[in-house]
Structures are given as C-alpha cells and as structure tokens.
Design goal:
single chain, GMP Synthetase, Chain A, domain 3, 3-stranded mixed β-sheet
C-alpha cells in the first residue's frame, strides 16, 4: 500500500476530538429532540493517526428502536470532520445512562430538575 499513515500530535488529536463533538451536537435523538452530546449519550471518542475514530455511545433505554437511525446520523455527521476516514460506533450499556449525564441545557429543554 502506498498511502502514508498520518501521525498527529496530542494537540491535533484533541482539536479533532473537539470538532467531532461539535459534529455530534448535530445528531438529534428523534424521540427527545435534543442532541446526543447534551443528552450525555456520547461516552468516549478515540481518534487514531490515519483517520480511524472509535466512538462509544449509549441510548436512553436498552432496546431503543432508533439505534440504527442514530448510528446512521452519527456516520453522516462524521463526514464533516475531514481528518476522519473511518468511524466505528460501538453501543455500550455500562455505565447505565441516567438523567444525571444530561447537560443543563437538556434538563431545561426537557423540564427535568
């Protein structure tokens, strides 16, 4: 293979992660109408030199019928981050999601105290 693997500095990786999180703010949970970042559904983002991104997310309920829709929306949103050439979305259930993971914005929008 003639492609060279690009090696990023820690600062560049952090910048890419920040832009990934901005892109994830465009992914809206269809049932709640709030983005997955403010809902606290994005648990972990790992970016590797060469453009591979592994993202660990959860859903508000196990067995959510919209898992495929949200995953597809994530993959589409990742197209806005040019450094990322491949994204692997892993659905995790631990730790279990609860409303304490939500941002203040999401709590206000959903009327949760």
């Amino acid at each position: 293979m003639s492609e060279e693997t690009i090696v990023w500095t820690e600062e560049e990786i952090e910048d890419i992660k920040n832009r990934i999180m901005q892109a994830m703010e465009t992914v809206i949970d269809p049932e709640l109408g709030i983005d997955i970042v403010n809902l606290g559904l994005v648990y972990e983002v790992n970016v590797f030199s060469g453009g591979y991104c592994e993202m660990k997310i959860t859903l508000t309920t196990m067995g959510c019928p919209l898992a495929d829709v949200i995953t597809e929306d994530i993959l589409n949103a990742m197209k806005s981050v040019p450094e990322v050439s491949e994204t692997d979305v892993k659905l995790v259930w631990y730790p279990a999601w609860d409303t304490s993971r939500m941002s203040r914005y999401a709590r206000i929008a959903l009327g949760i105290r």
